[in-house]
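step: validate -> pass
step: tokenize input -> pass
step: predict -> running
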Amino acid sequence: MSKRAKIWFGIFLFSFLPYLYLVYVSIFGIEFSWFYSTELCYGYKAVLIALFLGCVIPVYPVVLLFQCIYGFVNRKKLTMKHKLLVGIIITVLVGVTVFGCIGHFITEQVTIRINYKRDIVVIEEYLRENYGEALSADMEVQMPNEITRIYSVKTPLLQFPFSVSLHDDKNEVFLSGFEADYIKDVRLNEKMSEYLSEQWGLPQYAKLNVRVADIEVKGYTKEELPEALLSTCDYKIEGLTMEKNIYLEENVVREIADFLLQWEVKGNGKNANRYFMFYVRVNNEYYASIQAIPSDENEDIWKLHFSGYTDETGTTIENKVEELNLQEYK
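step: predict -> pass
step: emit ->
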């Protein structure tokens, strides 16, 4: 082999050095930051991240292309000794990397199972205390695919599993996604709107805008839910939506006044902010929005902020404020 050929062969061997980084991260891991989160990854995850970064900064594509071209051009010039050396280097690099990945994978799976056996006791106790024996009996805590303190729980009450989170430094649940998922799954806000609108005796074209804040399902069976929650859940009345065939401002103001008068009697303090949004839909399309804000000096005086509709002259009203005195409607 000529001196020039030896130099090129040395460069060829040197081109394998970047792969040592893959060996390193497969054993010792890599810290990966994504937006506002940072995660320490090991094994095959670390190798994949390192490969990705080595392709963004095109180290691995360049060295791989060079190695392929060099190997093809010199396939007949390299001696068996040189080919054996290259084979040993590749085998060691791949073998150690795979060994590191497999080692961490086995360690991770063992850790997952140990944590699962420990945490499931805490989670099942939490489920019994918060959702009752009847409902928690049908809840299944699923084993995660990675080391985490966030678990998925299957239940026939929900279409998809809900999450339960444990403190990192102590064995207790600090967050459950069941309530929010259940409210969304069974459309409890809409059911509550229909229920309260009927309780208030509202006409068919008017519906209360209700947001359910919290539910308590303990003590109920699956068959009793969600109807049993309509009379017990915590909720917030945020306003009213009216369906109209034609928009008449004086009629809308009259209905806003009726709502505010009823809220004083039936609202029971279900709106801590003391302001409301009213929406008017004409022919199934949103037409106007009116925000009602109470006066600080007189509880019968409200400011009505109109926006987003077109009046009888064809002019779009972006913002208009009128005063509403409830004494005129009592």
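step: describe -> DSSP finds eight helices and 14 strands in the chain.
step: cleanup -> pass
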